[in-house]
Design brief:
Layout (H helix, E strand, L loop, with lengths): L3 H17 L6 E6 L8 E7 L8 E7 L4 E6 L2
Length: 74
Amino acid sequence: MPNKMRFYRFFKYMLSCAHQNSTGSWTVNIEPSFCFRTPEAFCFAFYDQTHQYSRLNIEIQEMKKEIRIVTMPF
């Protein structure tokens, strides 16, 4: 059963693994969402210093009573 603690543990682990597989420091860009394609959706794209494409994407859609989060490439 999912809960907040399991989500935060998974989220922290995912960021840690992506950071270990990166080279150099990270930068974060806020970009339009690829999955949701709505005005209230956006994507956090994490880039490192050497790779052209993002190392981790976190797509977020805010709604009235919920927040949807999609992680890529996982």
